[in-house]
């Protein structure tokens, strides 16, 4: 749909993405309408999920020109080279198939930190290695977190004893990602393993003193 002089278009139903527009079908994520897409850099995208039951997007329109500062997703080459050689921080895989190829992931999925956006100030610790499958899953989990206001509970994964390695369930704009399993699964495992070890040590110490 063509926008008017103010950058506003009519609503377009996702059912219209057929024929020569089939490439616009949302599928897994809808790359063309993400916040970092070329379209979103020029226009404000508005989504309507109220036409059908569930949480899927039913209609999309352009709602004015984007005058906000756009996050630069470029990653320093040294950082990319480093993480491309790593295995996935979540599942340990690293392969050649589409879903097992390593992607360099921004730990903070909000992508609103100007320091991380700047190639000269971003650090290795701002990123992690994830396979495409895990990165896709993380993207959906982060989206749900921002929509519901509650962070991902890591105890949903069998064997995990703590929901977060830092912070609480409520998502907060100022530090909502830090402490989440999705933000840094390696740090989650380190911190939680230390907690379990220290807890066991304390129990053993108490039992010894009682004896």
TrEMBL record:
Q: Where's the HNH nuclease domain?
A: 78-136
What is the protein name given in its UniProt record? IceA1-like protein
Q: Pfam families from the entry? A: ICEA
Concerning InterPro entries, the annotation shows: HNH_nuc (IPR003615), NlaIII/ICEA1 (IPR007979)
